[in-house]
Design goal:
Number of helices: 19
Largest sheet: 8 strands, parallel, barrel
Shape: globular
CATH class of the largest domain: Alpha Beta
CATH topology of the largest domain: TIM Barrel
CATH architecture of the largest domain: Alpha-Beta Barrel
Strand content: 15-25%
Number of strands: 16
Bound molecules: manganese (II) ion
Helix content: 40-55%
Radius of gyration: 25 Å
Structural class: alpha/beta
Number of domains: 3
Distance between the termini: 47 Å
Strand order of the largest sheet: 2-3-4-5-6-7-8-9
CATH superfamily of the largest domain: Aldolase class I
Length: 517
C-alpha cells in the first residue's frame, strides 16, 4: 500500500515573498485555480497581516477556490491570528499556520529582549508558552491548525521535541519541521524527522510536514528523506521559487515519488499532466525565465542530444527516459494546429484541450485576435494561442487602452513614436523621440500615463520560430517600491513592447486603488 503524501503548496506565500515582483490579487486567484486543477491538497495563499494586498488575496482565494484547504501564515501573535482568521472566514476549509523560531540562534536573536526571559532556558520556556497560547487562539477560528517550528534544522533536539509535544497537546494537527536555512543534509534531515516520529509521545495525533530550502541545493533531497522517515505532508512551490535559493520544487518532489515508487512507496494526488502548465503560468506571471535544464519542466528536460543517447532512445524510449514528457503535460511542439480557416468551434476546442475556459465574451475576444494573428502568420501553434490568451484576457481592468500607435525610423532620423491612449473614453496622444523605437515608445507612454516608472527589465522572446513569429515582451516596472510585471504579444515587436508596458502600468494603477479592509 502506498502512503498518501499531502501536497502543501506555498508558491503564493514563500514563493511570491521572494520573487521581487508583486502579483496582483486576480493573478494570485488565477494561480490558485491552477493549483486546484493540479490537485494540491493545501494552498498557502499568503501572510494576511503583512499587507492589505496579502489579506485581500487570501480572502479572495478562500472565497473562490473551494477544493483545496486554504491556509494563511501568521506569527505566534494574537493580532496576526485574528487577521488571518478573518481572511479565511469565507473558506470551505481554512487552515491557520502559526509558529515561531525554536533554534537557539532564533531564540537569542528574535526573542533577545529581556521580556522573553533573561537566560536561554527562560526564553525556551517563555516561547513554549507563546506557542501554546497561539495555537489555542488559532483554534478559535478553525480546527485545522498547523504549527511551524522555525529553524528546526538547527534547534536543540530535546527542546524541539518538547515544543512539538506541547503544541500537539494544545491542538495542532500538523507539525511543520522546517529546515528554514537550507542547512541540513538529507541523512540528517531524515534522522530529524524520524526522531520527531519516535520521541514525541503524542505524534500519532498529528501529521509531520517537511519544509525545506535549497541554499545548498538539497531542498528536494531533504524533502524526500523526510517522506522516507515518515513525513506525510510536503511543503513545496512551483518551479522551486522561494526565499533565497528557493524551496523544494513541487514538480520534482511529485515526479521523484512517482518515478521511484519502488523506493518511496508513497504518492500524492497530483495530476502530473498539469505540471507543465502550472510551471509556465507561475514563471510567466512572475516574469521568470526557467533554465532549459530545469528538472522535470525545463525546455531540455526531455531532449536527447548525444548521438549514442539519441540512437538508444529511438530504438527504445526506456533506454534513456525515466519519465515521459506527456505525463508532465509537455505540449507537442511544432505541430500546426490552426489556420485562418479554423472556425470558432475549432479554436474553442483547442483552447479547452489546452486547459482554458472562457465566457462567450472572452472567447470572442480571443477568436478575433486569433484571426488577426492567423492572417499574419498562416500557421498558429499552441504556444501562439497561449500568448494570445495571455494578451487578451487581462488580470486587471484596463485603465488605459491602446488606440493608436505610429512608429517612424530611418537612417539619420531620430526614432519617433506617437501613442494614442484611451482613458475614460477620451483619447490622449503623445509623441516622443528616443534612442530607439522602444525607448521612444516608452517615453511617450510615460507622458501619456502621467507617471515615470523605472524600467527594471525588458525582455523579448519569439513565441515560436520564423520571422513572422509572435514576439512576447516582458517588462518589469518599478514605481515607488512597487514592482510589477507586464506582458504583451504581437507579430509586431513595437506593439508587443507597448502592450507589455501598458499591462504593467494598468497593474500599477490597479494596486493604487486597493483599499484596506
Ligand atoms: Mn520557508
Amino acid at each position: 500500500m502506498a502512503a498518501r503524501v499531502m501536497v502543501f503548496d506555498t508558491t503564493l506565500r514563500d514563493g511570491e515573498q521572494a520573487a521581487g515582483s508583486r502579483l496582483g490579487v486576480e493573478e494570485k486567484v488565477q494561480i490558485a485555480r491552477q493549483l486546484a486543477r493540479l490537485g494540491v491538497d493545501v494552498i498557502e495563499a499568503g501572510f494576511p497581516c503583512s499587507s492589505p494586498q496579502d489579506f485581500k488575496a487570501v480572502q479572495m482565494i478562500a472565497r473562490e477556490v473551494r477544493e483545496p484547504v486554504i491556509c494563511g501564515l501568521t506569527r505566534a501573535v494574537s493580532k496576526d491570528i485574528d487577521i488571518c482568521g478573518k481572511a479565511l472566514a469565507g473558506a470551505a476549509r481554512g487552515r491557520i499556520h502559526t509558529g515561531l523560531g525554536v533554534s537557539d540562534i532564533h531564540l537569542m536573536g528574535k526573542f533577545g529582549a529581556d521580556k522573553y526571559g533573561t537566560t536561554l532556558m527562560d526564553k525556551r520556556q517563555q516561547t513554549i508558552a507563546m506557542a501554546v497560547a497561539a495555537v489555542r487562539h488559532a483554534r478559535r477560528y478553525t480546527d485545522d491548525v498547523e504549527f511551524y517550528a522555525e529553524d528546526a534544522g538547527r534547534a536543540d533536539r530535546d527542546y524541539l521535541v518538547e515544543v512539538v509535544t506541547a503544541v500537539i497537546e494544545a491542538g495542532v494537527t500538523v507539525v511543520n519541521i522546517p529546515d528554514t536555512t537550507g542547512y541540513t543534509a538529507p541523512i540528517e534531515y531524515g534522522q530529524l524527522i524520524a526522531d520527531i516520529g519516535r520521541r514525541v509521545p503524542n505524534i500519532h495525533q498529528a501529521m509531520i510536514s517537511v519544509h525545506c530550502h535549497n541554499d545548498l541545493g538539497m531542498a528536494v533531497a531533504n524533502t524526500l528523506a523526510g517522506v522516507g522517515a515518515g513525513a506525510r505532508q510536503v511543503e513545496v512551490t512551483i518551479n522551486g521559487i522561494g526565499e533565497r535559493a528557493g524551496n523544494a520544487a513541487l514538480e520534482e518532489v511529485v515526479m521523484a515519488l512517482r518515478t521511484r515508487h519502488d523506493l518511496f512507496k508513497a504518492d500524492t494526488a497530483i495530476n502530473s499532466r498539469e505540471l507543465y502548465r502550472s510551471s509556465r503560468m507561475v514563471a510567466d506571471k512572475l516574469g521568470m525565465v526557467l533554465p532549459a535544464n530545469k528538472a522535470v519542466v525545463g525546455d531540455n528536460a526531455f531532449a536527447h542530444s548525444s548521438g549514442i543517447h539519441v540512437d538508444g532512445f529511438l530504438k527504445d524510449r526506456a533506454t534513456y527516459e525515466i519519465m515521459q514528457p506527456e505525463k508532465i503535460g509537455f505540449p507537442e511542439t511544432g505541430k500546426v494546429v490552426l489556420t485562418a480557416r479554423t472556425g470558432r468551434h475549432g479554436v474553442r476546442h483547442r483552447l479547452e484541450e489546452l486547459g482554458f475556459s472562457f465566457s462567450a465574451e472572452e472567447l470572442e475576444l480571443v477568436y478575433q485576435r486569433f484571426l488577426h494573428v492567423a492572417d499574419q502568420k498562416c500557421e498558429v501553434f499552441d504556444e501562439d494561442l497561449a500568448a494570445i490568451v495571455n494578451d487578451e484576457i487581462r488580470s486587471v481592468p484596463s485603465i488605459f487602452e491602446l488606440v493608436y500607435l505610429q512608429a517612424k525610423t530611418a537612417t539619420g532620423v531620430a526614432p519617433t513614436v506617437t501613442i494614442g491612449l484611451c482613458k475614460d473614453d477620451k483619447e490622449h496622444r503623445q509623441t516622443a523621440v528616443g534612442d530607439g523605437l522602444v525607448d521612444a515608445a516608452y517615453k511617450a507612454l510615460a507622458q501619456a500615463i502621467g507617471r515615470k516608472p523605472i524600467l527594471e527589465r525588458y525582455e523579448i522572446k519569439a513565441v515560436t520560430g520564423g520571422t513572422e513569429a509572435m514576439g512576447k515582451v516582458t517588462v518589469c516596472l518599478l514605481d515607488e517600491d512597487v514592482k510589477v510585471i507586464g506582458q504583451g504579444a504581437s507579430t509586431d515587436i513595437i506593439e508587443a513592447s507597448v502592450k507589455a508596458y501598458l499591462d504593467a502600468a494598468n497593474k500599477l494603477f490597479a494596486m493604487d486603488g486597493m483599499g484596506v479592509e
